[in-house]
Write a structure and sequence with these properties.
The protein is α/β, with parallel strands linked by helices. 43% of the residues lie in helices and 20% in strands. Strand 1, helix 1 and strand 2 form a beta-alpha-beta unit. Helix 2 packs parallel to helix 4 and helix 4 runs antiparallel to helix 6. It starts with a strand and ends with a helix. The relative contact order is 0.10.
Length: 483
Amino acid sequence: MIVHKFGGATTRSARGLETLAELVCAAHLQETKRLSRRSNASESPGLIVVISAIGHTTRYLQRAAEHSSIGNLASAEEYLERVTIQHAQLLSSLKFPEAIHAEITTKFRKVYQDVRALIEGIHITRELSLRARDQVIGNGERFALALIGALLRRRGIAIAEVNAREVMITNEEFGRAKPVMSETTECLSQQVLPRLLEGELVLIEGFVGGTRDGVATTMGSESSDLTATVIAAALGAKEIVIWKNVAGIFDADPELIPEARLIRRLSLAESEEIGRRGARVLFQTAAEPLANLEREPILRIASPSIAIRSKTGNFKSTTISREAMPHTPHPKPLALTLDPHLSALRLRPRANEHAIEGESPRRNRRLREKFSQLRARTLYTQTTPEDVFAVLRREWRSDLVESLSSAFEISEESPVASLALIVRSSEADVRQSFAELRSEMIRSLRQFAPIACFTSGKSIIALLDDTSGEAALKKLYRDLMSR
């Protein structure tokens, strides 16, 4: 079995969609031939394609929900209209027969009506909970499913469209839900595996899931990658290909650093570290489902446009495996990541609360619980007996402030950027060598006056004023990565 996942940036044009269809058809033909001569009964057959919402769909749906919550229904409807126009234009450019065009248009209209009902409800209540937000933004994949399903059927492939809300079972942490592997595996085995055995290609939405009670959830921005690896782990896939608009994982963002170099091989731990530090090319927890499998699948990140031009199939990509990388006698820089536009908060316990750290051993249980909640949701915290300085992603800010405001007085600082140097190293003498790299990093960034510089895991992280992030990244790349 092979799992292919296509990112929304790869399908925002008719050419991108046709490239998807060509790659999927070739993979499906290969898997069909393999199924016909399958001798190993323990090996699962077939092809599963995980799709993301096209282009800026999710962003527009989120803005529609936000504008509804502040009473601006007309603006919300404009964002929803942008989504429908974008998909209608793509549909027209693909030149389907009239009957198929009408069928897809009807599906689009149904999604539009469902979303409009949701934003009208938000407009009435003037409340945008994380649960309500998930109900809205998870519909982007439904538009993509209707379009891509029809495109593949036009090429003669038997398609089984599977509703991710029914098979990707998650907890109830709306906005960043986590898959429940045991229940997800059972659902996938019951609803997906039989379709594969019948020779059908399974098409399923990424990013979204559902609770045990059937309430729609989302798993975080770019989490379609996680959908693919969860499915692969649950059903025993031999290979996962994550198709992006870049050729793989680079040692820095190639849009900001044109001379950035492709990393051809990474360990699972290294890919997780790069994702955790803000690289958008792979969802930060995508590798987790593969970590403890008895039979490890191949995980590749590749570009459709590069693959389609390749005549040999040996195109540039990044391969990620559990296998440790070659021994490195001394830690060396592996990659730089920039995580910009982060919220910075300063929290001071209210007068009726005890101190946060150190001096008061009689901290009450309520404050301890709130502080644990804060640590779990932030990227970085620095505490003193008087206050806490916390850095977190913007999408978490409002929810966290609401939950902590009863215990803390909260003020917002200027936005910050996190610049991380990910280090490839063995376990030997790490502390000393990391200290040397940290000193080099501080010297390189001196002109940007970092707020803090510290080691976390296999990364050295500098926090800077948000306006300095890109310039600092470019200088640090020249100083540490280009040598």
